[in-house]
Write a structure and sequence with these properties.
Oligomer: homodimer
Number of helices of chain A: 15
Number of strands of chain A: 17
Strand content of chain A: 15-25%
Chain lengths: 434, 434
């Protein structure tokens, strides 16, 4: 079957999936948990094959760490399934209940989005996590993982799908795409797929966004800023900047650009240069910053001189752009112009300055006196994360399971027609019942 | 200035607009109301020029009715402004307030989307209504109305914008595009425009959706169904079908396709044929329905024989597609396949059948025993309507002012870094404060 045919079957199955009870969906999750435990030997074997291929391809250690699926990863995904099971049922919640007139009742009811396509990086634990979230939320899902873990994905997927169907969910609740060419086919399925969630590199996400009519949730760039104000607690600022830049430099929420108030640059830069040097952070800057940085003995990156447009750059590495600014106003206009509306922080003890920044920066996350690395669904207490959105529609910032939900309006009448309201024979009284 | 430059200025102004107080925005609305009253003579003069041009172009009476802006329309838009003023301030509402850890507080705060482009039909009252909604919601807006009312639009816009700026709103809060060529320019402004709301014909909305990377809210097709079940109250069904088809046939929420349970077709069709004949409704159908319709003496439309694919058709006229189905299951699968996920109704006294229909039909509105024509923001009690969305993301169905809002996350810390939580030196406790 082609992916178009699969997607169409899934579309037809999606109302059945949405109609499944919370018990059925939790039973499916329990079956999956037990089946993963029962088949762990086959899973680990498959993963060894993937890792052997990675060795042969001389893949880096940091990537191999993500590919590995061992006892520790297994127990972490099992704990994740338990957590998803314990979440309240997202389906059927009545969000609005309004009597429009006597015997004419409007309800806005939460329902699953329907058919979701998720394209994700080579991490076997991601496959388990995404399947669990889609099942719990009553969505059908087409999954496409990275090819570096294809053996592990294949066995994990077959265990998960069998268990879900055994528990009574529709046969078309889940589908795994394996060939890379299927991504382009998936992008054409705009009649049947309701939402795409691509995870991966900027270029990849941008490609998806540019080649489909299906709505896309996610983010391409993560150009996060931390602005150190004249009224910052400078010791705290150093700790925060080191964390925001180095705690996991490849993450989208790592700070890429450090903006420093000119008023304190003379004192602050030598301290920052020592802190960054210790962690191996190399810096770039425009002409003015570069002169200040050189004086303060920073490690310079290759090609350190930046033109204006270079401040759009996301490094995902131990490299930081630096710029001196004239206080919070210039910081805000730099961020709104060069940022990606992901997460941006101000470090200041001044309440008015902070309030201005939080109000004026047009980003999904606006932070005061903490690290941009907090921008994450787990750290926000959402339990499970679907992704991080820099779009302003639907879900913004870290997205939990509610990002996989929409609503429908039910209107229950007793023969009412609009003509009577247009003619003045009847009139609305709009009484909210909840 | 080009529209790109205007859009960019507007983007820079949008945080200021978002920061304006509810008092300022309401004062602007009051100024607009007073200025419209004060300048009504100029407005009516301009409208007469538009109407004279329409006469010269032999525009139809029904269109001219929409173009006309007279005392009656004026008092209706003034009442609309008063209503928008009386709505609660949508900005700044705290949607989530959670202590992640001691002294680390996360807030989800409602904010305007930013810069919105609205392209709307030739109706001067729409210009006033859309401007009021954008001002109240703290959004900057680029407006493009139909060219048939360009003189009226020009004077209305200049009165509205002057009043808004006089009341203290940013100079770039509103912009009117006048040339049709500016629409294509606007579609390119994806760096500065956050949302497009096109209103108008299917083909026009489809064109917008296909030619921009800016998110689009709205609907192209409105293929609404009414299914008459074997357990329907047939007298009520006739009244509802006549209303749903004829009360305003050109509306997107008018019923296009009538599905009839085969079990009652023999009794019901003669009654329906009389009711439709009286209102001038002509029908089309597939081979089987056509034979039944002819027997029952329906008025047939031109080219009455339909192939399967023809059931996607939206008439916006006194024409209905008819199909006989084997009960609710076939009705649901027809609707999910041929509908546009807008609004679909079942007429039945059977609770189980109704529950199945409401659950399984994948549309923004699922109705029981009332007319599809109720799908409308005013009739839902939203006070003001932005449009109707058939997308499943962001807003679905009739969209009130909340469709113009998004949120941002504020995280207020006291020096917290992620490293401490990763190392186990600190841990989250997730305590909701509201």
């Amino acid at each position: 079957m082609t992916i178009q045919e699969e997607a169409h079957r899934m579309k037809l199955a999606s109302p059945l999936m949405a109609a499944s009870s919370a018990e059925e969906r939790n039973r499916a999750l329990a079956e999956i948990r037990d089946a993963l435990t029962g088949h762990k030997k086959e899973i680990f074997d498959a993963n060894r094959a993937d890792l052997a291929r990675a060795d042969a391809d001389a893949v880096s250690d940091s990537v191999k760490k993500r590919l590995r699926f061992d006892e520790k990863k297994l127990s972490s995904v099992l704990a994740g399934i338990d957590q998803v099971m314990s979440l309240p049922d997202p389906i059927g919640k009545v969000l609005l209940d309004r009597e429009l007139d006597q015997n004419l009742e409007l309800r806005r009811v939460r329902v699953p989005i329907g058919v979701i396509g998720v394209i994700f990086e080579a991490r076997p634990d991601a496959l388990v996590q995404i399947s669990s979230l889609c099942i719990k939320s009553g969505n059908c899902a087409i999954l496409k993982g990275g090819r570096e873990t294809k053996e592990t994905n294949r066995i994990l997927f077959s265990i998960i799908k069998d268990a879900a169907v055994r528990a009574g969910l529709p046969a078309s609740c889940l589908y795994q795409a394996e060939a890379h060419s299927e991504i382009d086919e998936l992008l054409q399925c705009d009649r049947d797929v309701d939402l795409l969630i691509p995870r991966g590199s900027n270029a990849f996400v941008r490609y998806i966004m540019d080649h489909t009519r299906i709505p896309v949730m996610g983010h391409a760039d993560g150009v996060c800023h931390t602005y150190v104000d004249r009224d910052a607690d400078q010791d705290a600022a150093l700790r925060i900047l080191v964390d925001a830049k180095t705690q996991y430099a490849a993450a989208c929420n790592a700070t890429e650009t450090v903006l420093i108030d000119r008023a304190i640059a003379g004192y602050f830069l030598p301290k920052l240069s020592r802190a960054f040097r210790e962690e191996g952070v190399r810096v770039r800057g425009n002409q003015e910053s570069l002169e200040a940085l050189k004086k303060a003995d920073f490690l310079l990156a290759e090609d350190p001189l930046m033109q204006d447009e270079d401040y759009h750059k996301e490094y995902l590495d131990l490299v930081a752009s630096v710029k001196l600014v004239d206080g919070v106003k210039e910081a805000v206009s730099h961020i709104n112009r060069f940022g990606s509306h992901h997460t941006d922080a101000i470090l200041t003890e001044n309440d008015r300055t902070a309030a201005y920044f939080l109000q004026m920066v047009d980003s999904a996350g606006v932070y005061r006196n903490c690290s941009t690395r907090f921008a994450d669904g787990f750290r926000y207490g959402f339990g499970a994360e679907v992704g991080i959105s820099t779009s302003k529609l639907h879900a913004r910032g870290p997205v939990g399971m509610e990002g996989l939900m929409t609503y429908k309006y039910e209107l229950i009448g007793h023969g009412q027609i609009v003509g009577d309201y247009a003619d003045g024979k009847a009139s609305f009284h709009f009484r909210d019942l909840i």
